[in-house]
């Protein structure tokens, strides 16, 4: 089957690119080895960052410049004003709230966040503050960074492009026929369980598989040391919690970043990231939840913490390698032969990554209208489960800021 492009990896980057190329008239399919969004997309907090966290030292950094226009791009798609049409993607929140620890460096950081951003903090009078922020010191601000439900985004794009999205038999469900390293002549795929195979002949091949890009690059005869992983250890809290999304700033860092979601059982779940997720890399799950409990008692003194259930998950941020192993300033694209490898670096940058890669891919002018008939019976991937909906996830309770965890239970 001859195609303009094959995309490998069905997270936010691959799906946004699939929309871009499909609307242009390209004959393109997307291959997923597990479930859509498995890994970084489904594990993300869903915040459409506008660059605030990169200006906390009072400077408009390259990272802030690269992401500052993204909230408007996403907002237009979520409103149906531009492609992809994401009007069926659920929002967790229209905004995030900002507050600070009671320190001069934190105050300076809060004001530094105003520099050069398209989305700027809007100070709130006391009567407009969320109840959970009662008792926090100093200024509280609203930041128009929307928070999406990643699972809903994945379902939205799957519904729109089901005829172009194929499930393959895990990482071993694809192999490449090469002319030379980085020049792929054919993509040979196998359906799960070995029930069917197909040979695709694309002019372009794109890797948007996050951490899976390293494996794909090896298969294509390319260097996999061009990718790095930076780990996080995220915390989940479940129980009678308020709906809330926000960042607590402490100087040039986000001490905690909180997003909330409604779980299937009707409870509220908080995802807690920020500096505590960086610190948690070296901690056990129990140690991390005790640390987060202690941090929240300090930064949200009015939040009741009794009776909550806790869990954690680890996720690697897969990115193009940097010289010092630190965070790349922006999205990364590598090209070799007819293979393009992309890492958006942040969820918010997926549209910019799609634009950059799409600019390198042209539709075959002689091609007729795309007919997915040969793919009709091929299996389609499901959407990955949100971390707190995983059936084997273990939860536990904490007795106090320095208490030991009580016996674990499994998710219902």
UniProtKB/TrEMBL annotation:
InterPro entries hit by this protein: FAD-dep_OxRdtase (IPR006076), FAD/NAD-bd_sf (IPR036188)
Q: Which residues form the signal peptide?
A: none
Q: Which Pfam families match?
A: DAO
Q: Which SUPFAM superfamilies match?
A: FAD/NAD(P)-binding domain
Residues in domain FAD dependent oxidoreductase? 4-315
What's the protein called, per UniProt?
FAD-dependent oxidoreductase
According to its UniProt entry, this protein's organism is Schlesneria paludicola
Organism placement in taxonomy: Bacteria, Pseudomonadati, Planctomycetota, Planctomycetia, Planctomycetales
């Amino acid at each position: 089957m001859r195609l303009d492009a094959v995309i490998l990896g069905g997270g936010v980057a691959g799906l946004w690119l699939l929309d871009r190329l499909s609307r242009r008239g390209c004959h393109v399919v997307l291959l997923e080895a597990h479930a859509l969004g498995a890994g970084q997309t489904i594990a993300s907090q869903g915040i459409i960052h506008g660059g605030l966290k990169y200006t906390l030292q009072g400077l408009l950094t390259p990272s802030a410049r690269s992401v500052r226009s993204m909230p408007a791009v996403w907002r237009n798609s979520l409103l149906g004003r531009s492609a992809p049409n994401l009007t069926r993607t659920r929002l967790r929140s229209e905004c995030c709230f900002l507050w600070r620890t009671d320190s001069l460096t934190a105050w300076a950081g809060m004001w530094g966040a105003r520099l050069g951003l398209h989305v700027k903090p809007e100070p709130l009078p006391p009567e407009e503050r969320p109840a959970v922020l009662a008792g926090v010191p100093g200024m509280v601000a609203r930041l128009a960074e929307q928070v999406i439900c990643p699972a809903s985004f994945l379902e939205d794009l799957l519904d729109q492009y089901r005829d172009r999205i194929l499930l393959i038999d895990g990482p071993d469900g694809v192999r490449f026929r090469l002319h030379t390293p980085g020049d792929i002549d054919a993509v040979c795929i196998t359906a799960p369980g070995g029930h069917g195979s197909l040979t695709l002949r694309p002019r372009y091949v794109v890797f948007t598989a996050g951490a899976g890009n390293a494996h794909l690059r090896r298969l294509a005869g390319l260097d996999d040391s061009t990718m790095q992983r930076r780990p996080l250890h995220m915390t989940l809290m479940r129980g009678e919690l308020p709906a809330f999304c926000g960042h607590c700033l402490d100087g040039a860092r986000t001490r905690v970043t909180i997003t909330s979601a409604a779980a299937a059982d009707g409870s509220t779940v908080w995802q807690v990231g920020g500096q505590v997720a960086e610190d948690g890399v070296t901690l056990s799950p129990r140690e991390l939840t005790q640390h987060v409990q202690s941090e929240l008692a300090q930064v949200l003194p009015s939040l009741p913490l009794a009776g909550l259930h806790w869990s954690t998950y680890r996720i690697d941020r897969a990115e193009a390698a940097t010289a010092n192993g630190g965070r790349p300033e922006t999205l990364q694209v590598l090209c070799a032969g007819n293979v393009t490898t992309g890492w958006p670096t942040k969820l918010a940058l997926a549209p910019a990554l799609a634009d950059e890669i799409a600019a390198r891919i042209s539709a075959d002018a002689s091609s007729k209208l795309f007919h997915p008939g040969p793919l009709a019976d091929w299996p389609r991937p499901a959407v990955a489960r949100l971390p707190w909906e995983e059936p084997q996830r273990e939860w536990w309770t904490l007795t106090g800021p320095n208490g030991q965890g009580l016996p674990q239970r499994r998710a219902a």
